[in-house]
Design brief:
The structure holds two protein chains of two kinds. By secondary structure, chain A is mainly α. Helices cover 73% and strands 0% of the residues of chain A. Chain B is mainly alpha-helical. Classes of the chains: A mainly alpha, B mainly alpha.
């Protein structure tokens, strides 16, 4: 497929907006599960960036797609461990409110 | 694969709209179950963008890993911790909202300015590998990216063991910081099976 019809800037702007939405959710969520979802949004924004650069700038070697696969791997591991931490926090604190997770505060 | 230019533009606009509105829904909706399902829609639309970018393998991996694994995991977590609770109000919530929103908007304007003003050194479309991308990814993974590939497998094993260890049922009986006994009602106790023979 020839890609001249859509400029690379369109993909980059979509990924920027997705990343900023993820940061907003990360900063403003009270629910710990929603914080994990915001992190997934940010990782997806990074993946869109890597994929568009791999298709437009490096369209023969496509190393960006390999990086995207590694990012997907790390995101899956992060989601599993993050939700396990969340479960054990919930067992000990009986809440998912981010404001009450202050065990590591000095 | 060749699609008409207008079709490409229409597909891109629809997918971007779904991504952006869905992401806003994920962070803004009150009910977290709706957020989780919208997150699945966002992941599917991102996979559609990958298909537009000629990357069928990564699109399939995105659907399998994100929609099939991560999203299901998040929905399971919501089911396990879904308790209606009234959150304590925060006194300075308004200033926090203002500060975080302004930070995000500033970052967004900065990123969009970089996107639009930078001159990207685009490579010529004649070199494009097109539909052969899956073959090229396989070559990469087993030649120059072999070590990261193996390290990723070790990472997945560590994450699996770590998740099992962290989510096990034997927990502390006392809160670490306060010393108060912890409510143990979430922990499965040994109980009579529901379908015992009554006679």
């Amino acid at each position: 497929m020839n890609l001249e019809s859509i400029p690379i800037q369109a993909f980059l702007i979509v990924s920027s907006a997705l990343f900023c939405t993820g940061i907003w959710g990360l900063l403003n969520s009270r629910n710990a599960v929603r914080v994990l979802m915001s992190i997934e949004l940010m990782l997806n924004a990074v993946n869109i960036n890597l994929m568009s650069f791999s298709s437009y700038v490096d369209n023969n070697l496509i190393q960006g797609q390999v990086f995207t696969i590694f990012v997907i791997t790390v995101a899956a591991a992060e989601a599993a461990v993050g939700l396990a931490i969340l479960l054990s926090l919930y067992r000990n604190r009986v809440t998912v409110d981010m404001e009450s997770f202050n065990l590591l505060k000095w | 694969m060749s699609i008409a230019i207008t079709t490409q533009i229409i597909c891109f606009s629809v997918l971007s709209l779904i991504i952006l509105i869905g992401a806003l829904g994920v962070v803004l909706l009150e009910n977290i179950v709706y957020s989780a399902f919208l997150l699945g829609g966002v992941f599917m639309s991102v996979a559609g963008l990958y298909l537009l970018l000629n990357a069928s393998f990564v699109a399939a991996a995105q659907v399998l890993v994100y929609v099939g694994a991560v999203n299901v995991l998040i929905i399971f977590a919501i089911m396990l911790v879904n308790k209606k609770e009234d959150l304590k109000p925060i006194s300075d919530i308004k200033s926090r909202r203002i500060i975080s929103t302004s930070i995000c908007l500033t970052l967004l304007s900065l990123l969009i300015r970089v996107d639009l003003t930078n001159v990207w050194s685009l490579s010529s479309p004649q070199n494009s590998i097109g539909e052969e991308s899956t073959i090229r990814i396989g070559e990469h993974l087993f030649s120059d990216y072999l070590l990261p590939f193996e390290v990723a497998s070790v990472l997945l094993l560590m994450a699996m063991i770590g998740a099992i260890v962290l989510a096990r049922r034997d927990v502390m009986t006392k809160d670490i910081s306060t010393g108060l006994p912890v409510d143990q009602e979430l922990i499965e106790k040994s109980s009579e099976p529901l379908l015992t023979n009554k006679n």
